[in-house]
Amino acid sequence: MVVTVVQNIRKIFFQGKELYYQKGEMLIRSGDIPQGVYFVKKGNVKMDAIFENGRELTINIFKSGSYFPMMWALSDINNTYNYVAINEVVLKRVPKELFLESLKKDPQLLLEFTKRLLIGLSGLITNIEYLLFGSSYNRIASAIVLMAKRFGIQKDKNGKKIIIEIPLTHQDLANLTAITRESASVVIGKLKKKHIISVRNKFIVVNDVYQLEKECEIHTQEDDKSISL
Question: Which part of the chain is the HTH crp-type domain (predicted)?
């Protein structure tokens, strides 16, 4: 049933217009009315909030098979986020009216989209918990774990070693965790020194995801020395 529903969802989008974007290109700008609902056929798209002081916070990263902007599409909430291509991106776009009409005709489609929204909300709540209560060390470790679970490919039989197959800079991780790039670099350096992570061809390699998950809970004063939010 799930496979059939997913196939039906993709049928909706594959009749839409195909769009191509290069790394760093703006797909939708904050305050703009989106031209439709988008399906990520290839690549990754980040959803950013920009504050008055210029600081950037990455709310979500969409991977192949994802849809956006769902809050605007389903609830008529004004779009207040920037959507930017992380790498080379291929999208399919359909009019909002066509998308909504398809959901009305098929309750299973609506149920599937509702599940996806709730899963996304759950991840967002978890991220907020770390932003509010975690140290910089906790935040970066948790962000890397989350990225490994969402975008990682296992490289050994026991599942310890994972390569995150999207390019993530120190600034990207800082934007995911609401800290400065300098602070993110300090934490990343600590994780590298412990041999928990490494970098290969611009991709982060988690050498031991189980140990990294333990690091999410570690917080000492020493961890936060010279680290500012």
Answer: 134-210
Q: What value does the mean pLDDT take over residues 192-212?
A: 93
Into how many domains does the chain fold? Answer: 2
For 76-126, the DSSP string reads: -PPP--EEEESSSEEEEEE-HHHHHHHHHH-HHHHHHHHHHHHHHHHHHHH
Does residue 225 fall inside a structural domain? no
Name the strands in the sheet holding 67-68, side by side, starting at the edge strand that comes first in the sequence.
17-21, 89-94, 37-42, 67-68
DSSP letter at 34? P
Contact 123, 47 (CB under 8 A): no
- From CA 9, how far away is CA 97, in angstroms rounded? 15
Structural domain span for residue 116 = 6-128
